[in-house]
Amino acid sequence: MYDIKKVMVALDLSYHDQFLIKYLLKNLEHNDNLEEVYLIHVVKDYNDPVLKERFSGDQPIDEQIKTYIKSEISSCGGEDFMPRINIEIHEGQVANTIIKWVDLKKVDLVVLGKKYDVQHTEEVPKHVVRLAKCSVLVLPDKELPNEVEKFVVGVDFSDLSVQVVQQAHLIANTVMSFFGKKPSVQLINVFEVPIGYHSTGKSFEEFSDIIKKNHQKEFDQFVKKHHLEGYNLRCDFLLDEEGDTAKRIARYVADTHAIGFLIGSKGRTNLASMLLGSVAEDLLKYKHEVPFGVIKDKSSNFDFFDAIMNV
């Protein structure tokens, strides 16, 4: 696990920015670990007529945008935190530019918005989730929940799952400082019954029960191996009958009224993950009423993929 000390929040100058700014201000108020904070906006083209009409003052457009963002921070009650916030305005393709500056600033967490009433807004978060070297948090276009009961964490009992569990408990402690109550951390593990199960002579239900028991053993070994007994972990084992792990997770999160959920990602260390997609990316297809975080292992080696991306 690594501490989150540098955070970058991506703004798009829409109504959704207020939710992202309020989230950031809450963290600045309650999280003493934050050392560097960046608000970034990427301009696709400074010659865009709509942009020029919106920012038609005498100053350069990037300076006008900075002034606008500062006014948004002030309207959210963030005047006192202004000296701690760095505002970055850059031109380019949105996702690639965010990823570039995440790397340059050595950011630990990038925060993005997802507007569920607008088509195709998952493309930037999906691209960033796939290629950013740091962890990613996607916030919905609504206020943070007031009720704090449960925080859902998807695990596969890998070494990365240890980091996800530890990060979830840190987040739960931060949430407690927000609301005065600590949410429980609920682990989930999704499994499928293989197509050829009938050749074993077992029914679907019987084979499903066998797999579930094996996963329970894996969970027990996972807790013991990584000395996680002190976290008092509980895990629900979810059968995916549709071959869509992301959909099964999204349904569970909605049904249990969780305040947020985390999942691990191997990032760019797994070529198959990069080419074929991942559960973390697929989750962006579904509407979430709560924050969704993807935890990455920053110690992973990205050199091979860096070389490919720079060809």
TrEMBL record:
Residues 4-140 form the UspA domain. Belongs to the universal stress protein A family. CDD domains: USP-like. Coiled coil: none annotated. InterPro entries: Rossmann-like_a/b/a_fold, UspA. This is Nucleotide-binding universal stress UspA family protein. It holds the Pfam family Usp.
